[in-house]
Amino acid sequence: MEKTLSIIKPDAVSKNLTGVINAKFEQAKLRIVAQKRLQLTTTQAEEFYEVHRERAFYSSLCEHMSSGPIVAQVLCGENAIAKNRDLMGATNPANADVGTLRREYGESIERNVVHGSDSPENAALEIGFFFSKLEIIE
Ligand code: CDP
Ligand code: MG
């Protein structure tokens, strides 16, 4: 069993999509083993997206990610990292496969519904950013 960090982004939380997104995860046999609703400060969003600091979209992305509540969660299951990336779809909703979360609910490349870790190393770092061991109940 593998774990990955998922974030339901402010654009999706504000549209009341938390439940439909969670249903997709559960239908795909991913278990939500930790979950919390919170609002990041801009500084916290900048820290989370540190790897993108030099990119042109960085400040706008961090503004968006701190603009309203998010739902951070740990998903657990077989190949959870790749499975979640498949459910999410491509970064740009316009290029994402039909049926993926980003294609169904994404407004733009920035407002693209969900974040998902892209490797085991980043999953461990990103889970640790939001959750302590005590909060993850497998
Ligand atoms: O989220 P994902 O791993 O698919 O993409 P990323 O390349 O790690 O980029 C992180 C996030 O930055 C994306 O999910 C988008 O919200 C945002 N982004 C953007 O606003 N404009 C871009 N040209 C690329 C990414
Ligand atoms: Mg990424």
Write the topology of this structure.
Elements (H helix, E strand, L loop, with lengths): L1 E7 L1 H5 L3 H10 L3 E8 L3 H7 L9 H8 L4 E8 L2 H9 L12 H5 L8 E3 L3 H11 L8
Antiparallel strand pairs: 1-3, 1-4, 2-3
Helix pairs in contact: 3-4
The chain binds cytidine-5'-diphosphate (CDP) and magnesium ion.
Could you characterize the architecture of this molecule?
With 138 residues, the protein is of the alpha+beta class. The protein has seven helices and four strands, in the order βααβααβααβα. The protein has helices spanning 10-14, 18-27, 42-48, 58-65, 80-88, 101-105, 120-130, and strands spanning 2-8, 31-38, 70-77, 114-116. A four-stranded antiparallel sheet has the order 2-3-1-4. Helix 3 packs across helix 4 (58-65). The chain is globular. The N and C termini lie close together (10 Å). It binds cytidine-5'-diphosphate (CDP) and magnesium ion. Residues 52, 57, 61, 91, 109-110, 112, 115, 118 line the site of cytidine-5'-diphosphate.
Number of helices: 7
Beta strand %: 15-25%
Rg: 14 Å
- Small-molecule components bound: cytidine-5'-diphosphate, magnesium ion
The percent range for helix content is 25-40%
Question: Which sequence of strands runs across the widest sheet?
Answer: 2-3-1-4
* Overall spatial form: globular
Largest sheet: 4 strands, antiparallel
Instruction: Determine the oligomeric state from the structure.
Output: single chain
Count of individual beta strands: 4
Structural classification: alpha+beta
Intertermini distance: 10 Å
Low-confidence stretches: none
Listing every helix as H and every strand as E from the N terminus to the C terminus, the arrangement reads EHHEHHEHHEH
Mean pLDDT rating: 98
